[in-house]
């Protein structure tokens, strides 16, 4: 049986044998990758699922924005920090363009896009890719078939 706990719940739990042990991954602690490693000495394994960060927010430690690099937390670059902060500002080009339909799109412009991409990436077969696929691949159409302002 697997119980799920929130971070808030874990912060309130006191360390005890029947609850949870707070340890760093050193010494005789064994990492668990979910691929059937045995549990040494019949100890319980606590698997923690960490959700992704909310859009436009960063994790800060002592007022320094941090980012995960492999298994480490490192200070975030200024460029990455700015990029994340800008995520919260809606991008006009990715918003749905109400009332726009496939019939409104210029077929010649779509042909030019296909040719340009095929030449740039040396993929001549791309020119025969269906238009709907191209629109989805270039994020010009969402999964519900609605076209964006960029389209």
Could you explain the architecture of this structure?
By secondary structure, the protein is of the alpha+beta class. Helices cover 25% and strands 9% of the residues. It is built from four helices and three strands; from the N terminus they run αβββααα. The protein has helices at 7-12, 78-87, 107-120, 131-137, and strands at residues 59-61, 64-69, 72-75. It has a three-stranded antiparallel beta sheet with strand order 1-2-3, with no helix packed on it. A hairpin with a 2-residue loop joins strand 2 (64-69) and strand 3 (72-75). The model is unreliable at 22-37 (pLDDT under 50).
Average pLDDT reading? 76
State the assembly state of the protein chains. Answer: single chain
The helical percent reads 10-25%
End-to-end distance:
49 Å
Uncertain segments are: 22-37
Q: How much beta, percentage-wise? A: 5-15%
Largest sheet: 3 strands, antiparallel
Biggest sheet: strands side by side, in what order?
1-2-3
Kindly name the structural category. alpha+beta
Number of strands: 3
Bulk shape: elongated
* Radius of gyration, whole Å: 24 Å
Helical stretch count? 4
User: Which series of helices and strands comes N to C?
Assistant: HEEEHHH
């Amino acid at each position: 049986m697997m119980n799920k706990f929130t971070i808030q719940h874990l912060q309130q739990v006191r360390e005890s044998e029947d609850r949870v042990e707070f340890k760093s991954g050193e010494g005789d602690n064994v990492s668990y990758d979910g691929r059937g490693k045995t549990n040494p000495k019949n100890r319980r394994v606590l698997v923690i699922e960490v959700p992704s960060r909310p859009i436009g927010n960063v994790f800060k430690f002592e007022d320094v924005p941090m980012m995960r690099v492999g298994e480490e937390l490192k200070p975030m670059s200024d460029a990455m920090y700015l990029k994340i902060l800008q995520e919260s500002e809606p991008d006009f080009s990715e918003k749905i363009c109400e009332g726009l339909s496939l019939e409104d799109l210029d077929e010649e412009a779509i042909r030019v896009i296909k040719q340009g991409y095929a030449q740039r990436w040396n993929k001549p077969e791309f020119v025969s890719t269906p238009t709907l696929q191209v629109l989805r691949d270039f994020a010009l159409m969402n999964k519900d078939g609605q076209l964006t302002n960029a389209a």
